[in-house]
Amino acid sequence: MSRRYFIAGNWKMNKTPSQAAALAEALVKNIGGVTKVDVAVCPTFTSLDVVGKIVKNSNIKLGAQNMHFEASGAYTGEIAADMLLELGCEYVILGHSERRQYFAETDETVNKKTCAAINAGLKPIVCVGETLAQREEGVTMKVIETQVKGALEGVCDKGIKSVVIAYEPVWAIGTGKTATPAMAEEVHAFIRKTLADKYGEEIAEGVQILYGGSMKPENAPELLAQKDIDGGLIGGAALKAESFTDLVQAALNA
Ligand code: PGA
Question: Residue 248: inside a domain, yes or no?
């Protein structure tokens, strides 16, 4: 089965609505017509509306960076799936290591959010990754297996088809340190095997697994050449139209 490459920009807590609009305009001009690679941008909640309107008539998809698992109610400061859908979101990033680290997300909350997103019709981009201490301890695969299985508990064969996994080694995020292509591929192949054990080979072969962590135009070609790396979840390099455009071009050339 041939998977499509997917380049997603995680803008994190950057850009006001007007700054986000300017970046979105530039991206639509540069890569709005790309059809051979899946492309998405994930701005802050406050910029989803304006960015959604700008990318609406292009091939660039919209994603959010988080959501709550409940549908509505007394959860001050939280956002529900149907609010994201109404603004045009197709994707939602879940379980990013920054949310696990600073906002007490656990495999359990990531699982609840993953199920809620799928049920609502959003495609979750589920993030997993080991810390430097875990890698040095030699427990990387165990950590990844626990996170992948934890996030996907109760997700059925139909549900998994809308899930994207992002492998983001925590020590490589925003640090300029990238996993070597071989290191990344080893974990990606392991994630696919974990999926195959649960859902069978055919379904596992269809799941997009993205790499994230200091991915940029210079290192993308080598990473994207790996068998099980199907794209990137891009932080820093997604904040400039030129570098994000070059990353999409790298995926088109891969
Ligand atoms: P980075 O972030 O590209 O800036 O390392 C990636 C991410 O955290 O999604």
Answer: no
C-alpha–C-alpha distance, residues 241 and 1, integer Å: 32
* Active-site annotation holder among 98, 105, 130, 168: 168
Q: For a substitution probing ligand 1, which of 6, 7, 10 has the most ligand atoms within 8 Å of its CB?
A: 10
Of all protein residues, the one whose alpha carbon is nearest to atom 3 of ligand 1 is 235
- Is 168 among the residues known to form the active site? yes
CATH number, domain with residue 35:
3.20.20.70
Consecutive H or E run containing 212: strand 209-212
- Quick check: 32 and 60 in contact, CB under 8 A? yes
Dist. CA 200 → ligand 1 center (Å): 30
* Rounded-to-10 torsion of CA 183, 185, 186, 189: 160
Q: What distance in Å separates the CA atoms of residue 130 and residue 128, rounded to the nearest whole number? A: 7
Q: What spacing in Å lies between the alpha carbon of 173 and ligand 1's midpoint?
A: 5
CA 73–ligand 1 middle distance (angstroms):
32
pLDDT in tens, 118-168: 999 999 999 999 999 999 999 999 999 999 999 999 999 999 999 999 999
Alpha-carbon distance of 160 to 118, in angstroms, equals: 9
pLDDT for residue 1 is more than 70:
no
* 96 given a catalytic annotation: yes
Q: Tokens representing 151?
A: 């996030």
pTM of this structure: 0.97
* Angle formed at CA 195 by CA 189 and CA 197, multiple of 5 degrees: 105
Beta bridge partners of 61: 40
Evaluate whether residue 69 is within a structural domain: yes
Domain count, the chain: 1
| CA 213 to centroid of ligand 1, rounded, Å | 5
